Backbone:
């Protein structure tokens, strides 16, 4: 087989054993890799199980890579992680960059499944065909960056490490998984799944070859993509890709603020109004004050990852999503230094920055509206309070105070405890905090937020701008248009097409910034590269079938394990009161019409369940 190792490693922590599943080409043609492979494997391993929860030992957690990984293809570095999610209902799929995915493949495996529960804290050290269960007692409770350093010195610099922090150990519902010291599978609370299994870290290393059918073709396409990108950036340094290369996603603060898409004070506005704050959010400020050296995933031409200029001790410069949610969204728009310190603290302790920012913003707004009082909270909390933010991050990680402990168990429990009046002020969907794109400004993205699998995920479909871009739509064979602020049938058709495309790229484990139409490769080039790597004969339709199979299978699992779609959130119907997106809202009727249309074109029944004929069509 080309492009695949043909082996999947399954580790049973309860027994302290491992098994290698051998898979053939038919299997890989169906499940390819990434999120689809995760879902296929998850279904296989849970087929005989019933009534388990995210923290049950039998709940597997799956890591998967893709066919292009491991051979220096730009962007083919993503590792996908899937499990029943502690933070939400149903399964959740999260991704990270870095070298863990390629290293897993070099160790000889296309995917890794971890199931059971270790009797004591453990490090899983995977090297070729050997798995060691090493004592992790000495790392338990340790800041994740320190524990990473210890592991590198104990196991060797050629290891690549996934790990959890104290948040995962303490089963905080929005704990994440860190890969190396600066990449995160942030969403869904999957770090707490590893914590429940007492897995502090997974270390992989290996030097096995990965064979491509036509490596020269892959190399040539890769080179061509790199040249095209550098020419495009030279020609338009202020284009999206130019900004990404120069300033990383930190440079998107200005773009999103100007568009009125920057979550500000609990998503109540798309831009902080005052001059001082605006001066901190510019690209110039990013360049002079915040963005340090490049720190890209290996072999990436885009190089969106950066180091922190202000504090080179930080693991990396926080990304747009993190700094937006723990910055303007909690009133720290004038004090991005504190915002970055809060992001770094989350990284070290192992918390998802997006849900953390949402929880704190929710408390701040409830307090400002008088819905919760100092008497109830035990303290006051106002937008813009940096020290309180840092304290809350510590408290929820360590479950230290009554409020910290409550927030660690997620929004639903916290809102139930603090009263029904607090509910309209939270921006969570099925327990997951809202990412840094305003649903009222981008109703197509917002529509995606409220639907599983993967509620409140901004990386599962193309954003609303594409509805008025004929050349990008043409790549998907679409001749229709939809205005950026519309939530009409065309927007839903476009959302479906791009959702399928994104899921297909995810199955190849390609990074979004690389695969987005025309950024580095064209769609045709990606298909040619896949065929050159694997020896397959895929065409556009085959790739779309892969993408749709991924969505349908994840949807099936999501519903089967308790996931449901969110009902319309009342705040979406209120106009944004000020700023560049003033007046933006989603009409409740439009939303439910769109849902009806979406269920129909996805091949689901009126309650959103995948129809038997759809399951049959995708052989799932
Ligand atoms: S674009 Fe950024 S996240 Fe994607 S592969 Fe390159 S450096 Fe990594």
Residues:
């Amino acid at each position: 087989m080309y492009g695949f190792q043909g082996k999947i490693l399954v580790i049973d922590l309860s027994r302290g054993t491992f098994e290698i599943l051998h898979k053939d080409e038919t299997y890989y043609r169906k499940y390819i890799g990434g999120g689809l492979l995760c879902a296929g494997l998850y279904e296989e391993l849970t087929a005989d199980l019933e009534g388990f929860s995210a923290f049950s030992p039998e709940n597997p957690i799956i890591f998967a890579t893709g066919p292009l990984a491991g051979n220096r293809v730009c962007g083919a570095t993503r590792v996908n992680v899937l499990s029943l999610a502690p933070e939400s209902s149903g399964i959740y799929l999260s991704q990270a960059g870095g070298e863990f995915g390629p290293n897993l493949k070099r160790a000889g495996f296309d995917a890794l499944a971890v199931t059971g529960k270790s009797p004591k804290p453990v490090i899983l050290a995977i090297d070729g065909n050997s798995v060691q269960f090493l004592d992790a007692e000495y790392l338990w409770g340790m800041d994740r960056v320190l524990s990473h350093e210890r592991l590198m010195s104990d196991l060797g610099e050629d290891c690549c490490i996934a790990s959890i922090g104290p948040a995962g150990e303490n089963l905080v519902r929005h704990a994440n998984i860190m890969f190396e010291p600066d990449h995160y599978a942030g969403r869904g609370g999957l770090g707490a799944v590893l914590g429940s299994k007492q897995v502090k870290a997974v270390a992989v290393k290996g030097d096995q070859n990965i064979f491509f059918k036509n490596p020269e073709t892959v190399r040539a396409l890769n080179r061509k993509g790199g040249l095209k990108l550098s020419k495009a950036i030279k020609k338009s340094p202020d284009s999206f890709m130019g900004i990404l290369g120069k300033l990383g996603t930190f440079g998107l603060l200005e773009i999103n603020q100007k568009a009125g898409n920057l979550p500000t004070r609990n998503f109540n506005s798309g831009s902080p109004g005052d001059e001082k704050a605006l001066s901190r959010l510019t690209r110039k400020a990013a360049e002079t004050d915040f963005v340090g050296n490049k720190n890209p995933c290996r072999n990436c031409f885009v190089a969106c990852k950066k180091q922190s200029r202000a504090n080179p001790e930080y693991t990396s410069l926080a990304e747009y999503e993190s700094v937006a949610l723990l910055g303007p969204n909690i009133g720290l728009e004038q004090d991005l230094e504190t915002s970055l310190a809060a992001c770094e603290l989350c990284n070290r302790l192992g918390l998802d920055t997006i849900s953390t920012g949402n929880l704190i913003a929710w408390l701040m707004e409830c307090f400002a509206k008088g819905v919760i009082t100092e008497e109830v909270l035990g303290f006051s909390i106002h937008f813009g309070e940096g020290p309180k933010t840092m304290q809350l991050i510590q408290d929820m990680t360590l479950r230290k105070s009554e409020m910290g402990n409550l927030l660690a168990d997620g929004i639903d429990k916290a809102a139930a405890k603090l009263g029904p009046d607090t509910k309209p002020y939270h921006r969570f969907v099925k327990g997951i905090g809202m990412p840094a794109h305003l649903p009222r400004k981008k109703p197509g993205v917002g529509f995606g937020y409220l639907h599983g699998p993967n509620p409140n995920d901004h990386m599962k479909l193309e954003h609303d701008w594409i509805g008025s871009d004929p050349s990008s739509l043409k790549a998907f064979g679409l001749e229709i248009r939809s205005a950026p602020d519309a939530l009409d049938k065309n927007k839903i058709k476009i959302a479906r097409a791009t959702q399928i495309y994104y899921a297909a790229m995810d199955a190849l484990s390609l990074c979004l910034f690389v695969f987005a139409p025309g950024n580095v490769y064209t769609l045709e080039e990606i298909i040619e590269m896949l065929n050159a790597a694997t020896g397959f004969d895929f065409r556009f339709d085959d790739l779309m079938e892969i993408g749709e199979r991924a969505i349908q299978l994840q949807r099936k699992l999501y519903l089967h394990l308790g996931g449901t779609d969110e009902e319309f959130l009342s705040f979406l119907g209120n106009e944004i009161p000020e700023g560049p997106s003033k007046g933006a809202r989603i009409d409740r009727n439009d939303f439910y019409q769109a849902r009806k249309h979406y269920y129909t074109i996805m091949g689901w029944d009126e309650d959103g369940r995948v129809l038997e004929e759809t399951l049959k069509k995708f052989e799932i």
In short: Residues 75, 77, 97, 296-297, 300, 302-305, 511, 513-514 surround iron/sulfur cluster (CB under 6 Å).
